[in-house]
Amino acid sequence: MSVRQKIYAGHAVRRLREKEGLKQTELAQRLGISPSYVNQIESNQRPLTASILIAISRTFAVDITSFGAEDLDRLVADLREVTADPFFSDLGLGLQDVKAVANLSPAFAHAFLRMHVAVRRNTEWRASIDDMLAAGEARGGTEARLIPYEEVRDFFHYIDNYVDALDRAAERFANDLGILDGADPVQAFRNHLAQRHGVTVEVSASDPALPLSRFDPRTRRLVLSGTLVASTRAFRMAATIAQLEHAALVAESVTSGGFRSETAAEICRLALFNYFAGAAMLPYRPFQELARRLRHDLDRLVLETGASLEQVCHRLSTLQRPGAKGVPFYFAKVDRAGNIIKRHSATRFQFARHGGACAAWNVHEAFEMPGRTLVQLGEMPDGVRYIGIARAMAVPAQQYGQPTRAFAFGLGCEVAFAHDIVYADGIDLKSAPVAHLGVSCRICPRRDCDLRAFPPLDRDIHVNENVRDIIPFTVS
Question: Is residue 379 within 8 Å of residue 385, measured between CB atoms?
């Protein structure tokens, strides 16, 4: 975070003061400023200057990067999408309204987002019940299945996909075993499971009917499918190690998430075991240094580490340790239908919470050229530009009759970090063509996009029966 930019973080200052049990006058004395100045900071009438940030850091031993604007930018974008719902159309809620809520009370903003998800899911459930009743197929027991997954996605989304205690534990573990220092992860993890936990690792026949992995705590056997490649076998073993050694750390993180259901807590628990596995295969500082030296060349990183492309991309999106942050990347995994089945972001880049992703995003084009790396200079409606990398890969069928699964990976960072990535070489950032991206058509403010699938929810449209263009309406 650059201290040159204006930072309005009154909510963070207020929360810190209240946590310490201080009055505004007492905080003013500690920081060497007037009480009225503190009041203006907490009400976001004045920004945090570099000297005040340093004073706060020294006085309260907190990381000044926690006062950055990235979380608020993300929160504003989410609120903007939700308030575009026709349900709120008569209220005239604008950008300044949602910015005010996000700045002054982010906790309330999160509560509002959670409520909207619940209301929307309940509406969808009622509609599905109507359909089933009409067809004579009413069933029960499946209400709001997606809510737990959305809760967990938001949990990781708002912590920049970085879990400090678990990440550091994985780094210590990996360094002890020599991972990224010449040790074979598969053999190192196998030996550790045997010697530390008495767990036997077996590889089953390449039978698609069998699970990819199965751990039996009673017999101390971990059975891995013969269809798994080496990087995935290592990953599954590392996840089992997390389950055996770091259940308490994982439980703390799950508790901090405040999930409303045990299902969401279980999903998060599994995600955190997998987080440890990814961090153990690609330990923080060694991998960060390697990525920086190779300028984030994905092919080189795959060759140097032995990890899969997905593991490398995912790990790059998590390098956000306070005081040692890497390039902030977004990462997404998209299927052929355009569904975003995995998404993480340490940037201001916004993914659609509901519905399809922007058709101008190069992850969709990647399916037309599998195996090739596509590079895109894109701009979001807020004016922020990104270097976007996309590549599609196919997972071969394991037997005749099975469909081939195909996915596209999207990885990107803001153009401010272009000099850190090899993919920006040769791109004239001032004159190169720019793809005009959006979050989704439903909330995109762009009026001149020929790829628009739906009109925006929060704007009027006009149709002229005497004029027909690519898009059969104009946006007011």
Answer: yes
Report the run of H or E that residue 390 belongs to, with start and end: strand 385-395
Q: Higher pLDDT residue, 406 or 119?
A: 406
pTM of the full structure: 0.74
pLDDT of residue 434: 95
Bridge partner residues of 438 (DSSP): none
Mean pLDDT of 265-272: 96
In Å, how far from its chain's centre is CA 103? 21
Over residues 400-421, the pLDDT tens digits come to 878 888 999 999 999 999 999 9
Identify whether residues 319 and 373 lie together within a single domain: no
Q: Which domain holds residue 17?
A: 10-68
Phi, psi of 216, rounded to the nearest 5 degrees: -110, 105
**How many structural domains does the chain have?**
3
The residues with which 222 forms a beta bridge, in sequence order, are: 201, 215
Dist CA 464 CA 476 (whole Å): 13
Which of 286 and 140 is assigned the larger pLDDT? 286
Same domain, 222 and 248: yes
* Position 69 pLDDT exceeds 70: no
CA-based nearest residue to 375, from 408, 407, 418, 423? 423
What DSSP letter does each residue of 305-349 carry, written as one string? H---HHHHHHHHTT---TTS-----EEEEEETT--EEEEEESSS-
> Domain boundary at 28, 47, 68, which?
68
Our CA angle for 81, 82, 84, nearest 5°, is: 70
Q: State the Cα–Cα distance between residues 86 and 160, nearest whole angstrom.
A: 30
Q: Which residue has the higher pLDDT, 207 or 404?
A: 404
